Amino acid sequence: MKNLYIVSLLRGITIGFYAPVWIIYLYNSGYNLFLLGLIGTAFEIMKFVFEIPSGAFSDKFGVKYNLITSFICLSITWFLFPFSSNITILIILLLTWTLSETLFSGTFESWISKEVKQSDFS
């Protein structure tokens, strides 16, 4: 149960801190709003496309491996994000962020449902 709290805390910190800031950071780095809109749209489309393969990945390798891979991808993204002065690097980082998002979505809830007893829900 303690691991669930740790994972939830780490996830909350990354989403709560980085998600609101990345658009502002890129805008201040010289990217225009139209390009940022295209990047955001591509990000959401990639999440849609990666969702089913990430579920199959979770079924094959397990929930914990999926979460670890998600955090590795997220760490790579946010560690290299300040160096995204090139659009190619930015697209690669968005791909790793998208992969992280899709590996996490559904997997964490699946892990919770396996770890927490049914009686704890009521």
UniProtKB/TrEMBL annotation:
Record's protein name: MFS transporter
PANTHER family for the chain: PERMEASE, MAJOR FACILITATOR SUPERFAMILY-RELATED, TRANSPORT PROTEIN-RELATED
Entry GO CC: plasma membrane
Membrane topology recorded in Swiss-Prot or TrEMBL: Multi-pass membrane protein
PROSITE patterns in alphabetical order: MFS
The keyword Oxidoreductase is annotated on this UniProt entry: no
SUPFAM superfamilies: MFS general substrate transporter
Gene Ontology MF annotations: transmembrane transporter activity
Naturally occurring in which organism (per UniProt): Staphylococcus pseudintermedius
Transmembrane domains' residue ranges: 7-27, 33-50
Ranges for domain Major facilitator superfamily (MFS) profile: 1-122
Alphabetical UniProt keywords: Membrane, Transmembrane, Transmembrane helix, Transport
